[in-house]
Structures are given as C-alpha cells and as structure tokens.
C-alpha cells in the first residue's frame, strides 16, 4: 500500500494577545488561554490519498500518535462524512496570524472569474428560454389553443410518489442553500451542511405526503395506502440501502468514514420515528382535500394522436430537455465534485444559491417550451413526459461524473471505484427527483393556466 499523504486541518491561525496563544480548527470553538506561556492543542482530522476515496484516522498507522489523545464531540454531518477529529503530538506554526487563517484555502481555489463566467453563461440560457416562452404566450398561443381539448388523466401512483418526494427534496435544498448563503452554515463549522440537510429532510415529511396524496387523488387513484407507503419508503429506502452497502465496504476496509452502527440506528429512528409519521399526517390532510379539477371538460374516450415527427416524439424531446439545465450547472458541478473527491474546500455558497435559482428557472422554461411543442403536435401525454424532460438532466450529471472519474481522479482499487459510483448514484437519484418535480409543476401550472384563461371546451 502506498503511503498516504497526511492532510492536516491545523487551524492555520494564531491569536496573539500579549504572550498567550489560541488555535482554532474549523468545527471547534476557539479556546481562551491565560497570559502565561501555554500552548494550544493542534487538531487533525484524517488521512487522505489521491489514489483512494477511503479516508483513515490520523493515527491509523504506526506514526504520529498522541499519547494524550482527546476527541472533541462530532455532529451528525461530520460522522456521515468521515471526519474524526483528534489531537496531534506536533506543534503548530506560531507565525500565522488569525486574520490569515483561511488564506491557504482561498489561494488554492480557482479564480472567481470562472464563477462569474458560469453565472453569465446560465443567464444567457435563461434569457433565451424566457424569450421563447414569451413569444409563445404573446403571439402563438391564442392561435393554437382550440386544438387542445384533451387531458390525459389516468391514475399515476408512481408519478405522485416521485412528486411528493421531489417537493421534500426541493424545500430541503432551498432552505439549506439559503442558510449557507447567509453564512449560517459556514465551511468553518464542519458537518453543519449535512446535518442541516438531514434534519430538514426528516421534518419535511408532511409536505411530501400532502403533495403526493393530493395529486394521487387528482389522478383518480383509489389505492391510497399503497401511495402513502411508497411516498414514505421508496426513494429513502433506495438511498439507505445504497448507503448501507457502501458503509459495509468502509467497515471492511477499516476506513474512518465508516458510520458507526449506533449512528445508523439513529438515522433509522429519525426516518421511522419522525419522517414516516409526518408523511402520513401530510397524506391525511391531502386526501381530505378535493382533487385538482381541470379547468375544462375532458373527453372520456382518448383521441388518436397523429403521426409525430422525430423532434416531437417522446424520447428525442426528453433527451433535448436536459441539455440546457445541465449547461447551467456543469461549472459549479466541477467545483462540487472537487470538494467531495479531491479534498478541496468549497465556500462559494452565494454562487451556488444563484445557480440553484437559475437551474429552477431553466428547468421550468425548457420543459414548458417542449410541452407546448408536443401539444401543438396534438400529443396530450404530457404528465410523465414533463417529469422526465427536466429529470433527464440527472443522466447528464451521471455522464459528467463518469468523465470526471476517468479524467480528473487517480483512483485505483475496486473498493474506491465502487464507493465513488455508489455515492454518485445517490446524488443522481436525488437530482432526478428534484429536477423532474420542477418540470412537472411548471407544465402543470402552464397547461392549467392556458385552459383556465381561454375557457375552451
């Protein structure tokens, strides 16, 4: 086994007040010392290697072990990310000033001009799509609306399940990124971002159950118990099984990133004890509400769909629909993957939140645009198609992750490869549900709006 390069998060800072010293590790509160000559503890987190995604504890090998080892308490996010903070026998550099403690991170990050290029690139895409949608709404829509007299309203329990869980993910992501953008989830507080996301997901079971139940009733579904159970267990269950299998590999390899059994039990307790009951509560209120009625009368007998051209068929439209949203995020995606797999610190949450808003707008406008083209071709099967059109962005995300693995990383070994793609599949699934939900609700609002305004029977 090749030697691992120790990565210390020293704190990199020194507060000098008279002759007293204070040292800080991100995630730990500063400690005040008396004015006598006293040295602060140096904390380290783990050992990483560019050839492996398996982190190990700092003293996992026979060197650098502190005889007076102390471990500060760690939050849920630190445990899930494999952060194992402990003391080190080495002493810190006393020449680093407190105000300069983050300089080495800022210097190592790419220039922010790249971020502005990413934002401008995304804004151009948004302006283009906005112009197209505006042209449809102002010049074309009133000529073609008479042809739209059919709504596909067959029961779709699978779609309602994804939409409920997508609503949960969307709200969780928005709040987490907003808090990070405002500075409440600073990278200095290690694990705070993951802890916030997990807690929010657990507490947002109610809107997931409500949206799923309300839409399932709108679709005319009758097996409401199955719908609620799938909403509470389907996607979270897939994520947990994948995460558990990856954790087994970490256990076998002796990595510090392996989540302890007690933490897994705690996560299950949060899921079954809080999230699932809240999902049932939301479903109860959702089923008590009447289904969303279409604004016009729909035909009981499905109308025959004319022969479609290549570009108005389902699969080409779905494939094209994911290109523009992915074009808005691929630069930020590079930095995010670097922070996860290349051990770089990510701190540009302001840019990330702005790109998140642009992604929502782009998914909405691209899906509405393609939905309109399909309606013009008298293809009224827009329900699943609207979800898959923007959700296909996740496929491009996976392709980019494969490209990143082979072009940017130097990972060797079967365990590290399996871990990389195992965690990537979790990201892809969550992103698929998230973007698909945005596309569906945008088209749902668009179709209902044009029918309700023009009152066509």
TrEMBL record:
Report the InterPro entries cross-referenced here.
EMP70
Where does this polypeptide localize? Membrane
Pfam families named among the record's database cross-references: EMP70
The organism's superkingdom is given as: Eukaryota
Q: Which residues cross the membrane?
A: 116-138, 159-185, 191-216, 228-252, 264-287, 318-341, 347-375, 387-406, 418-447
Q: Name one GO cellular component term.
A: cytoplasm
GO terms (BP aspect): protein localization to membrane
Stated membrane topology is:
Multi-pass membrane protein
May I ask which residue range the UniProt record assigns to the signal sequence? 1-22
Which keywords fit this entry according to its UniProt record?
A: Membrane, Signal, Transmembrane, Transmembrane helix
Family membership noted in the UniProt record: Belongs to the nonaspanin (TM9SF) (TC 9.A.2) family.
Protein's name according to its UniProt entry: Transmembrane 9 superfamily member
Q: Which organism is it from?
A: Cyprinus carpio
